[in-house]
Write a structure and sequence with these properties.
Layout lengths: L6 H17 L4 E17 L2 E19 L2 E7 L4 H16 L32 H16 L5 E20 L4 E19 L2 E11 L8 H14 L9 E7 L1 H14 L2 H5 L19 E4 L22 E5 L2 E2 L6 H7 L13 E4 L5 H8 L2 E8 L9 E12 L2 E14 H6 L1 E4 L9 E2 L3 E9 L2
Parallel strand pairs: 7-12, 11-16
Antiparallel strand pairs: 1-2, 1-4, 2-3, 4-5, 5-6, 7-17, 8-9, 8-11, 9-10, 12-13, 13-14, 14-17, 15-17
Length: about 450
Amino acid sequence: MNLQNQETELKGLVEEILAEAKHQGADHAEVAVSMDQGLTVAVRKGELENLEFNNDKGFGITLLFGQRKGTASTSDSSPSAISDTVAAAKKIAQFTQEDPCHGLADAALMPEQPVDLDLFHEWDLSPDAAMIKAQACEAAALAIDDRINNSDGAQVSTQQSLRVYGNSHGFVGGYCGTRHGMSCVVIAEDKAGMQRDYWYTTARQAQLLESAEAVGRKAGERTVARLSPKKAPTGSFPVLFSASSAAGLVSHFLNALSGASQYRKASFLLDSIGTEILPKWLTLRENPLLSGGLGSAYFDGDGVATRDNTFVAGGVVEQYLLSDYSARQLGMQTTGNAGGVHNLDVLGETQTVDSLLRDMGTGLWVFELMGQGVNGVTGDYSRGAAGFWVENGEVAYPVDEVTIASNLKDMGRSIAAMADDYDYRGNVRAPSMLVAAMTIAGA
């Protein structure tokens, strides 16, 4: 079923819920609805392992009585269930404390009209066709090398989503999106032991996915490359974060610049507007209205119209990532980031990965990070890592069971260069990034 056909019906239901909230005495109300449906097929060793159809729907209903707030949710859209859920939110509000920062965002901040961001591209994929693609993906990985002797399987999925938001200002907006994907995980073994790695592709349009064979080959090649790892030396060395790892690194800075971290005073970048936290050649900018973007949306979780934002320009913090609530806490204006950032681009001078390796000379090239050793309050950073040891600008050998450590403040200021291998598979679109020095605990 095409979810686009249900958008009008769902908007009408949101208006009915808002009317019920008013009937039960709420001063203001907002409703957020999400619908998701799709198909996921997984194979392992050539055999079908899992076939899953999902069809989920949920309503989040928030009522405001003065400055008291109550929220309740339901998956049942029947009139009686909606009435009961509104009543539950009302009862919850009676037990909450008044908060002067509670309230709807200003009506003038809502979008004046819908924006078509080209997010919906249905994939007419049958379970049999999905299974054949997954089998081809896994087979391509297993064929790379005889040492690949096991598999955690390959998976193909197609998903549709519908998001609708409305509030008592009279704004009701919605948009549909699709996300398709394919992944493969295999295991290789030699005399030194077993290694596991993966690859995946994701896109809004099925034709933009990498082929099943390409995904499988890359998963197999990455796995074989990790065989017979050695210990990295201990000391202070440059660390090159691969593109996918670099996106996680950038996310730590975005979290520290979020309004919630700021007003709770739980950020290593507290009160940092106007402060240089990154090199002068580096900028962090979001583009929520990017056509076809994986993170694109024309309104945020508060119903506020999204817009281009620059959070860090020339290394200097320009603004925080603010929802309406966090903005009120800080005496600022929302940036349209309730629910997070949209299509965050890391911008600056770039060069090829080979050139970056030559510039690094000797150090660690990180492809996988493990553990949760990041303190968002102090900025202390210590995580397990695996990747490759580089000597004289060339990959020398794979490494694992190594720990890298520093402080995020120091890491941000010591980003020395970026590559041109941007990873567009997520909401933070980053390339490989070279940090000039970190402590490496290896041999």
